[in-house]
Amino acid sequence: MNYLTLSLALIFVIIPLLLSKTLKLGLEKDTTIAAVRSIIQLLAVGYLLHFVFETENIVFIFLMVLLMIGAATQNARRKGKAIKGITWKLFLTFLFIEILTQSILLGLSIIPSTAQYIIPISGMIIGNSMVLSILFLNRFISEVKDHVEQTELILSLGGTPKQAIHTQLVQSIKSSTIPTIESQKTIGLVQLPGMMSGQIIAGADPVQAVQFQLLILFILLTTAVITSIMLGYLSYPSLFNNRMQLLKLEEK
Known about the structure:
Blueprint: H1 3-8, H2 11-23, H3 28-55, H4 58-76, H5 86-107, H6 115-146, H7 148-156, H8 161-185, H9 194-201, H10 206-235
Helix pairs in contact: 2-3, 4-5, 4-6, 5-6, 5-10, 6-8, 6-10, 7-8, 8-10, 9-10
């Protein structure tokens, strides 16, 4: 594919723009911004990755991963501003997930220790963790607001903050991980995952592509569960003051 054929693919941007305009959906601005940003960002990342892959310098690999964690943190924090200190909680969660997964992958020699493998896999791990954190924060904040009386009742009866918030916390963790688990049940039947499809299009052996995709699926399953649990247990203490009273959640 070259830039000429790629430009023809803009028809897939024009179609939703025309539909939005015709049906007065008001999506033209957001659609245009999304398309322009994706072009600029992906091209910039493409040239940057080309440089990093060529140099194979561990410092550049580290900086690239750190950049992804920082961007994911900045994006996800918008959904959790009501929780005190959510920025460092998100950053710590993403960093822990990255260190854990890469330690296993590289420590057991599951993947080669090269930028070509580390960076794309890190991007999938951090990106999935970001999405899961947003799902969790949305549900958790909603659950807390909807069950204020229940939480305060448990506290008034001598319950600890952990006991008072336990039901909401567990429900939020389950709800945020369900999409990942359910999507894996139909993988290969309903959809061919992106990594697998990309390798097949590039000419890789389908069986080899499946093996790599299974690796990613298993990693994302761990990522989903750990992200929700870790973020949940880091966040809930911030909902209470020193006298074990529930604080009012207000979006900043």
